[in-house]
Amino acid sequence: MDAKRVIADLRELAARTGTADGAQRLAWGPVWREAREWFRGKVDELGLTVRRDAAGNDWVTLPGVSTRTVIVGSHLDSVPNGGWLDGALGVMAALEALRMHASSKPPVTLTLVDWADEEGARFGRSLLGSAAAAASLRIDDVRELQDRQGTRLVDALTENGVALERMLDAHRELKTIDARAYLELHIEQGPVLESMNKPTGVVLGTFGVERHMLRFVGQAAHSGSTPIPMRRDAFLAAAQTALACREIAVRHSKPGPGNNVVCTVGVVNVEPKIVTAVPGVCEMSLDQRALDARVLATMLDEAREAAQRAAQENNVRVEWRNVWRIEPRPFDRTLIELCEAAVREETGDAPRLPSGPLHDAAEMVPHMPVVMMFTYSSNGLSHCKEEDTPEPHLEKSIRAYLRLVQKTMDYVAHL
Ligand SMILES: [Zn+2]
User: Fold this and answer.
1) How far away, in angstroms, is 74 Cα from ligand 1 center?
2) Which residue positions in the chain have pLDDT lower than 50?
3) How many whole angstroms separate alpha carbon 218 and alpha carbon 281?
4) How far is CA 261 from CA 27, 152, 382, 392, in A?
5) CB 268 within 8 A of CB 283
6) Helix residue spans in 104-233 (DSSP H)
7) Ligand 1 centre and the CA of 359: distance in Å?
8) Could you tell me the distance, in angstroms and rounded to a whole number, from the CA of residue 82 to the centre of ligand 1?
């Protein structure tokens, strides 16, 4: 295995498809297409071919003795001014796994995937290609999407040879693969591994999310003439709720990997927004995340009770509107163990952590055993040109990932 070659490939890709401001591989655009063409050249060198599915995902198959398949990959697209490792690391490490086995017929089939439009940076829909392959994409939800220039998604897809109405055919193509494992290496995009000073971590799954808008309705009134006990202050009800939700999250965060939960109030709007008026209306967002579905459900119940209590205390009412939710996607126990063994052999330790961000891997969870491996993010930064991993850490992560691929292939061969 050659981790240095993977890093050299990544640097070459960054030089070809980035500027001083970072990676510019925006999905469905010319630089992204160029990146994929460059990648196709690398695949050609191995005597293998790239096959594009109905959703624009690129697949490379190295047939093994058995049709049982281990899938490796990630995404080549980036956000505008993105990092050099987000997505690209997983694809280039997967390519190295193919290289390691391309000269002989491996015991099981090894298939690489480069998912299309993971970022959703242009049209606002993340995981577009993998969701189509997973059949969780609803075409009606994306049919009308446009980018900031007014270009329609359907036209951008057509430009890339993808027919919107036929994207879900990618699911039928996925089903033809005898998939026994999906393995993705990705940069953490957060500060956890750095805080532990560990180069590589085992990912337990992706957080479930409950995202709501709460609207507290009281009565706007003059700030000078209305005595405090007589007020119906919608902001104070929201503020009490925000503090209570933080307490709920703190209480449900237990020591140990995968047991931390988070909750965020990221938006607060008051009306009438006048320094001399008691706020009559306050709208706030609440985003709760946990890896355990029961914990997440309990956190939501408790948040509802807390909001109700705060509303009563301030003589206002509260309405809830669900904005978005996704269930937690825990990864496969056996693959987590293999991942742990691979990381430990390479780095001496195997910290476990959940993933806050969603990844293409989450879309594969209902369809096959999945695990992800994270590499260290310098300063916890991602989606920016500063995104980086110290080179010795990066090498260790790549080697740990290639070990994981090997271990998984051995395991799948003996199923
Ligand atoms: Zn990514």
Assistant:
1) 7
2) none
3) 6
4) 32, 37, 21, 31
5) yes
6) 128-134, 139-142, 153-159, 169-175, 192-196
7) 7
8) 10
